[in-house]
Automatic annotation (TrEMBL):
Keyword field: Signal
InterPro entries cross-referenced by the UniProt entry: CBM6, Cellulose-bd_IV, Galactose-bd-like_sf, Pectin_lyas_fold, Pectin_lyase_fold/virulence
Limits of the CBM6 domain: 43-185
A molecular-function term among this protein's GO annotations: carbohydrate binding
Superkingdom, natural source: Bacteria
Biological classification of the source: Bacteria, Pseudomonadati, Myxococcota, Myxococcia, Myxococcales
SUPFAM superfamilies tied to this protein: Galactose-binding domain-like, Pectin lyase-like
Protein source organism: Cystobacter fuscus (strain ATCC 25194 / DSM 2262 / NBRC 100088 / M29)
Signal peptide feature range: 1-32
Keyword Lyase: no
Protein name: Carbohydrate binding family 6
């Protein structure tokens, strides 16, 4: 939103900051004041420490009441507090706050906003000295109690001296804690589809053209430099590719950032065709890392490439807000370490969303969606599609290990044939035996024709994960001496796709389950097989296993397998009674979050949604 005009010139009003507070009871506040200019760049600005001056001068609030008035009770800005003693400004669209800051050294500054947003998207505008607005779109964090830091994609250039920064709230139910700043070293370069002016990359008005992309990435950019790529469509008879063969350093990464200048984020289009998925169509990889280290790439989109990202013998890659669609494979990595992929997605792929070929280690995948078809039955998939695939390496000494998946969803990995009796494959998560040290946190496998998780890895760890509407929601093998462990998982509505067995939990290995729920799964809630050595050995503690209506046999066990129930609620046998849950639905997609909680609050067993 535009800045609200001042009723008092900036130099004519008090701008003392109200800092430091002591709580005594619900609303009693001891308040001290820090002299003008206490905030600085680089540094941290706490949201509640806006300038003094009152309504229409230092801030605008939609009402005159500070609710709940824990801090600065005589101001109208709503300031809340968490149990940890951390304050937060609870904002509404149309409101704004201003802060006087001292910039010790002029230059480019990277800003990061700490906020929470239950759902949807939020929008703020950050500006200084009454102009220079930067729009920022914020993704949901999942709840008002869940705060995260979001880096503003475009840095600000601000000279040395005293300035007034304004944080304006445009959309979304936002709670804000702080705004932090860090001075960027290195140079900034700019690139657009056709370029502009002298095409020396020194500014948007002199931007490099896309034809200069490769030289810019590997020759012009030095450690610490950033290339900003303007939004719009990048399409050519020879598709563009980011082929990265040089490196930054531990302290000075090389960076590429897509920027929305009114045309959306940059979208690169290749020539790969799903009708002939094995041919790249001169579009081998959108991002190609070969012996490249210390790169940060963010806010780019790609369509119709064989690989969205292909990385080999590379490390310290930070990939975020990459949107990959109509591709054969989203990410394919080998010999990659110490890296992170976040806030990204692969949609409409024919083969794999994420593929770890060999020797991938110390890697975090966070806030990622792998959806093979988006529910479109006309989209072709190959035999066999996987949301996430961790493969056995060609060299057995190079397994994938120490990988964390947090808030990753694998969905609609479907492949069906018309031949009677064929096994219908397609897994959300597929892990081979060589992998170890793999963790799944807050993740989901939904609507896949075979396993939600088909996990042969050694002693994997699961926490707060859900699997619904797969043939076998959790298919766990694990022949390690240590168990694969499931904490607080939900397995519901497993459904048949062929003549083979269906289950909430299928195992022929060593598994321990805690505080989990298995509900209304076709076939068996628990199915144990003895097809290898050792045979299935499963322990289930403080959990629920129940049908929706009439109870059948809760488990099916082959000879030689072991199943131990500890302090659990079971719907087992025709004379048993189902365990009622609050609002379970076969089409559940997470709302309401407590749908699979026990209807009786005195029942303490079973899955509960993570806060």
């Amino acid at each position: 939103m535009p800045f609200v005009s001042r009723s008092v010139p900036p130099g004519a009003r008090p701008r003392l900051l109200a800092l430091c507070l002591c709580l005594s009871g619900a609303t009693s506040v001891a308040q001290s004041q820090t002299p003008f200019g206490a905030n600085g760049f680089p540094g941290v600005i706490k949201a509640q420490d806006f300038d003094q001056g009152g309504e229409g001068v230092a801030y605008h609030d939609s009402d005159a009441v500070n609710s709940p008035a824990y801090y600065r009770p005589n101001e109208a800005v709503d300031i809340g507090i968490r149990g940890s003693g951390t304050y937060e400004v609870r904002a509404s669209p149309g409101e704004w706050l201003e802060y006087t800051v001292n910039v010790a050294q002029g230059g480019r500054y990277e800003l990061a906003l700490s906020y929470s947003l239950p759902s949807g998207t939020g929008e703020v505008r950050i500006g200084w000295d009454g102009a220079n607005e930067v729009p920022v779109t914020l993704p949901a964090t999942g709840g008002h109690g869940t705060f995260q830091s979001y880096k503003v994609p475009v840095p600000i250039d601000i000279p040395q001296g005293t300035h007034v920064l304004r944080l304006a709230f445009v959309g979304g139910d936002l709670y804000v804690r702080q705004l932090s700043s860090a001075r960027l070293v290195g140079r900034a370069f700019y690139l657009s589809r056709s370029g502009a002016g002298a095409k020396d990359g020194s500014s948007w008005s002199q931007a490099f053209s896309a034809d200069q992309l490769q030289a810019t990435l590997n020759q012009t950019l030095q450690p610490g430099d950033t290339l900003y790529v303007a939004g719009g469509v990048y399409q050519s008879s020879t598709p563009f590719s980011f082929s990265l063969t040089t490196s930054g350093t531990d302290t000075l990464h090389k960076k590429v950032v897509g920027v929305d200048l009114g045309q959306g984020l940059p979208v690169f289009k290749g020539l790969w065709n799903p009708a002939n998925p094995g041919a790249s169509g001169k579009s081998h990889a959108f991002l190609r890392f070969t012996g490249a280290h210390y790169w940060d790439i963010e806010r780019l989109s790609a369509e119709n490439y064989y690989y969205g990202v292909r990385a080999d013998t590379s490390s310290h890659l930070q990939l975020s807000e990459l949107h990959l669609s109509q591709i054969r494979e989203g990410l394919a990595l080998s010999h990659v370490s110490d890296s992170r992929v976040s806030r990204s997605d692969a949609r409409k792929y024919t083969k794999r969303g994420i593929r770890f070929i060999e020797d991938v280690s110390n890697l975090l995948v966070e806030d990622f969606l792998a959806d093979a078809t988006l529910g479109d039955p006309s989209w072709p998939t190959e035999a066999y599609p996987f949301g996430v695939s961790i493969e056995n390496p060609a060299d057995p000494t190079l397994p994938t290990h120490d990988v964390v998946f947090n808030r990753v969803t694998a969905r609609n990995n479907t492949f069906t044939t018309t031949s009677t009796g064929d096994y219908q494959n397609g897994d959300g998560f597929s892990l081979e035996r060589s992998a170890f040290g793999i963790s799944f946190l807050n993740s989901a496998a939904l609507d896949n024709t075979d396993g939600g998780w088909d996990d042969k890895s050694q002693a994997a760890y699961y926490e707060n994960c859900v699997a619904l509407r797969n043939k076998r929601n959790f298919r766990l093998w694990n022949d390690s001496a240590q168990p694969t462990t499931l904490n607080n998982v939900l397995s519901a509505f497993a459904q048949k796709h062929d003549g083979y067995s269906t289950a909430g939990l299928w195992s022929q290995g060593y598994v321990e389950v805690y505080d989990s729920t298995f509900y209304a799964n076709a076939g068996s809630e628990i199915l144990l097989e003895n097809n290898s050595t050792p045979a299935a050995r499963v322990k289930i503690v403080n959990s629920i296993a129940t049908d929706a209506t009439a109870c059948g046999s809760v488990a099916s066990k082959e000879g030689g397998t072991t199943l131990e129930w500890v302090n659990s609620r079971l719907c087992d046998g025709a004379t048993a009674t189902p365990v009622p849950l609050r609002a379970p639905r076969a089409d559940w997609m997470g709302d309401p979050a407590d749908a699979f909680n026990p209807a009786d609050a005195s029942v303490l067993q079973g899955y509960r949604p993570a806060p």
